[in-house]
Amino acid sequence: MPPTPFPHKLSSFTLPPWVPPPGGMRTWGCGEHFDAVRLPATLASPLIAALQAAGGRGPVLADPYSGSWHILLDPDTIRPGPWARHGIRLLRPGTRLTIPAAHVTVGPDLHWHTPPGVGYTHAEALNDALTSPPGSTSTLRRTTRRSGISR
Predict the structure, then answer these.
(1) How many other C-beta atoms lie within 10 A of the C-beta of residue 108?
(2) Per residue in 96-139, pLDDT tens?
């Protein structure tokens, strides 16, 4: 299935320098341009919906082949915490992650669920979404506590 057109006009925002040009793919080490949290596809939809409801617009990769999704954050903003369970993991610095071109937003292989270039998900919002009690992901807890998030 060919990719659908990119949902945003390319002139309306600037892509990060780590995003390859159309038709390309690039592999980067985590911690170089971004940190990444890997989660099973079965947990992705409610978590992404909760993050977006809280204003998170960060890039999210979907890999239907492996059954995993990756939420990308600014480097050095999050570390493992009590939320690291059920297959949810912070990828260690240097872990290689393949990045497709920004226009690749559908398909059976690696693609963007939320394309890069329109902001980042904040580590605090991700922590809140991951530590919320089951069934409460639609209304994230807001805390000022930063332990377990900042490096």
Answers:
(1) 9
(2) 999 999 999 999 999 999 999 877 788 888 888 877 765 554 43
Long-range contacts of 42-46 (CB under 8 A, 24+ apart): 42/67, 43/86, 43/87, 43/88, 44/69, 44/113, 46/137, 46/138
Radius of gyration of the chain (CA): 15
Query: Looking at the chain, how many residues does it have?
Result: 151
Distance separating alpha carbons of residues 59 and 1, to the nearest angstrom: 22
Q: Of 104, 114, 129, 144, which Cα lies nearest the Cα of 51?
A: 129
HSE (side-chain half, CA atoms, 13 Å) at 126: 31
Indicate the helix (H) or strand (E) that contains 111. Answer: strand 111-114
- pTM for this model (two decimals): 0.77
Classified as helix, coil or strand, 49 is helix
Phi, psi of 53 (to 5 degrees): -65, -30
